[in-house]
Design a protein that fits this description.
Porin, two-stranded antiparallel sheet
């Protein structure tokens, strides 16, 4: 009995001291997110996220023969995100991140449709769930993140994809080594039909500049990555390499990127014996220089991305029975970089309306794609003025050119021999953007723009070449951040 009493007391002491030791770290819960309302009113601009461009799309209401071409469109959309962080000291935390989407008056009431009349619809999505860990026993600062999280590398030009994987950072002053591994597709667990992503890159600071580089490799043994009937009928290996610079250089702020892609899609001889292998290689670069002066900021942006050769492939650069070599710049499968371009309101995507519109704001979850910039180049000049501490106005103008050979990136015009016409000018765009801080947490932005179309936007009607009506947009966003 005495032994039992002593053992019991020792056990209680162990539990008590264990509770004290764990109590030394305080568990802290945090919540953050936003709610927004966006209005869209446009003509010949198009919603982002489709499989094509102004003319090349599966959505018939946007094609020249469709009911929406050269006609106005208007709607209101909304999104909310709610993020919960459970933080235990400096070493570990867990994050659960939800997203809600819908258009006002959604018709079908399925996914992304909490705007359905009578509500109570399936609009809740899990965006991310992950664990962050900073192991104390490693002698240099090291972090790991496990779970569903963003794969984000230069997300306005290359890749932003939410997916399951592991990312890490090892800091050995002055360099931080970034590590990436993601499982893009599992497929049948007893077959080698997976898609895996590997990445590595250093980043370091020199004075006020952050410099970095990376390599990103996709090993896709079931290509395209999708649930369609053609999923997994091919295999593919792609890699991307890039360098970048961000920060201040003298009196100006700079942002620079150079990205090169290379890869190959191989046909499955059992399912596609007549389809040739398709080789990919392309590049893109961007330089943004901004000069802040009191309440004014002046900036110039230049971007160039190689385009495909229409004699060797379709201008979207997708693997099919007619393609042999794609020289146009492409981004990884599933990348939403198109919505992050943030350079214009009409032709490219713009941050004002969360990157939801744009003639070339398209992505393909199953295959590589042009990423919103492939096949084009632009030169941009802009100026911003802080009228009040709470009010900023921005005016920007762009010349946009076409880099596709023996055809056009967007337009479908033909010459007198019936071949695709090769034009250089997509158009001139002008945009006006206003940002107003109504309260510390509530911001209202509104703006509009138009594009004077060049010959590279002409399309073939079946009997002649024609030019679309001037594309334009008026859009706004009210966002409450917390």
């Amino acid at each position: 009995m005495k032994k039992f009493t002593v053992i019991s007391l020792i056990g209680l002491l162990i539990i008590a001291f264990s509770a004290v030791s764990f109590a030394q770290d305080k568990l802290e819960f945090k919540a953050s997110g936003f709610i927004d309302e966006i209005t869209e009113y446009w003509k010949n601009v198009s919603q982002g996220g489709g499989p094509g461009t102004l003319y090349k799309t599966a959505d018939t209401v946007i094609t020249p023969s469709g009911e929406g071409f050269n006609r106005e469109a208007a709607y209101i959309e909304t999104r909310a995100r709610l993020k919960f962080d459970a933080v235990w000291g400096k070493e570990v935390s867990g994050t659960i991140y939800f997203e809600f989407d819908g258009n006002w008056g959604n018709a079908d009431g399925t996914r992304n449709s909490f705007g359905y009349w009578n509500a109570d619809r399936s609009a809740l999505e899990v965006k991310n769930i992950y664990i962050d860990w900073a192991p104390a026993f490693i002698p240099v600062p090291t972090t790991f993140r496990f779970g569903s999280q963003p794969l984000a590398i230069r997300s306005d030009m290359l890749v932003y994809t939410d997916g399951t994987g592991i990312t890490g950072g090892i800091k050995i002053d002055p360099v931080t080594i970034k590590l990436y591994y993601f499982k893009a597709f599992e497929g049948n667990i007893i077959k080698s039909d997976d898609a895996d992503v590997y990445g590595l890159g250093p980043e370091f600071k020199i004075g006020t500049l952050t410099l970095g580089g990376y390599g990103l490799y996709y090993d896709i043994r079931g290509y395209p990555i999708s649930t369609s009937a053609t999923a997994g009928t091919q295999s593919a290996k792609f890699w991307w390499a890039g360098v970048y610079a961000d920060g201040k250089m003298g009196p100006v702020n700079i942002n620079f990127d150079f990205i090169y892609d290379d890869g190959k899609v191989k046909a499955n001889p059992d399912t596609s014996p007549t389809v040739d292998d398709v080789k990919y290689s392309g590049w893109a670069t961007k330089l943004h220089v901004a000069y802040p002066w009191e309440k004014l900021t002046f900036g110039v942006v230049g971007m160039y991305a190689t385009g495909a050769d229409a004699n060797k492939t379709d201008v979207n650069g997708l693997a099919n029975g007619t393609n042999t070599k794609v020289k146009g710049y492409v981004v990884p499968p599933g990348s939403e970089a198109c919505g992050g371009v943030g350079q214009s309101l009409v032709f490219y995507a713009q941050n004002l309306n969360r990157g939801n519109t744009g003639i070339v704001n398209v992505f393909n979850h199953g295959q590589v794609n042009t990423g919103g910039v492939g096949g084009s180049w632009f030169a941009k000049l802009y100026g911003s003025y802080n009228v009040l501490p709470e009010y900023k106005v921005t005016l920007q103008g762009l010349y946009i050119g076409d880099t596709t050979k023996h055809g056009n990136t967007v337009g479908t015009a033909q010459d007198t021999a019936g071949n695709l016409r090769d034009d250089k000018t997509i158009g001139w765009e002008a945009d006006l953007i206003n940002d107003i801080l109504l309260t510390k947490q509530l911001k209202f932005s509104f703006g509009g723009g138009f594009l004077i179309p060049g010959k590279a936007l002409d399309y073939w009607t079946g009997t002649e070449n024609s030019k679309p009506s001037t594309p334009w947009i008026i859009t706004s966003r009210l966002v409450y951040s917390f």
